[in-house]
Specification:
By secondary structure, this protein is α+β, with helices and mostly antiparallel strands. It contains four helices and twelve strands, in the order E-E-E-H-E-E-H-E-E-H-E-E-E-E-H-E. Strands 6-11-10-7-12 form a five-stranded antiparallel β-sheet. The radius of gyration is 23 Å and the shape is elongated. The termini are far apart.
């Protein structure tokens, strides 16, 4: 007798049918029900045993917080309703803050940064201002300027009022808006008063922690 194939229990998961950039308003054509094995479904997914139309329509008109790729399962935290918040507020991950900084294109990678990128923030400051009577010495030489990374791996929300994180052309940025924790927002506010801010663009590859 031919061996019977064990049927895997499945549920329908609400998924994205095309790539969506931050700020995209979802329409019916952007969504689809996809059959997933039950053991692969997380409790944050939107599921239905029978492709319930009413469940799908709850997400029509919602706005995407950040870029979502085709085939991704929708979760409630990925989107917001325009009636719930201002547009920029809605783009933020819950609990985070938006902080804008003025930047010159020649400062680090500022001319190559797009919304959705992740960056490090570097502070260049004049150490003699903080210790005028005792200038630091390094390798026998008096040091005037010092550089340090004050924030690492932070998300760029907007560049010069542009929120689309699916574009492929960078602009010469004058203002960059970052998504920060409340503590990081305090750090960047202090850094802006201490000296010049430079931006360093991070790779998409996973970086090994430095020793």
């Amino acid at each position: 007798e031919p061996q019977k194939i064990k049927e895997i229990p499945r549920m329908f998961v609400l998924s994205v049918d095309t790539d969506l950039g931050a700020g995209t308003t979802i329409s019916k054509s952007h969504l689809r029900w996809s059959a997933w094995p039950e053991d692969m479904i997380r409790n944050t997914f939107v599921v239905s045993p029978d492709k319930e139309k009413a469940v799908l329509e709850e997400y029509v008109g919602a706005v995407v917080r950040k870029e979502v790729l085709e085939g991704t399962a929708i979760t409630a935290k990925m989107v917001f309703q325009r009636s719930d918040a201002g547009f920029l507020t809605g783009l933020l991950t819950p609990g985070m803050r938006a902080v804008s900084i003025d930047i010159k294109p020649e400062r680090g990678a500022a001319g190559f940064i797009l919304p959705g990128d992740y960056i490090d923030v570097i502070l260049i400051h004049d150490v003699r201002k903080s210790s005028p009577n005792d200038a630091p010495v390094l390798n026998g030489q008096i040091v005037r300027y010092a550089a340090e990374t004050v924030l690492a791996d932070v998300r760029v929300i907007a560049v010069d009022q542009e929120y689309d994180d699916t574009g492929d052309e960078a602009v010469l940025a004058k203002t960059v808006t970052l998504e920060l924790t409340p503590k990081e927002a305090e750090v960047i506010s202090l850094a802006k008063e201490m000296g010049e801010i430079y931006l360093s663009l991070r790779s998409f590859a996973v970086e090994e922690p430095s020793e």
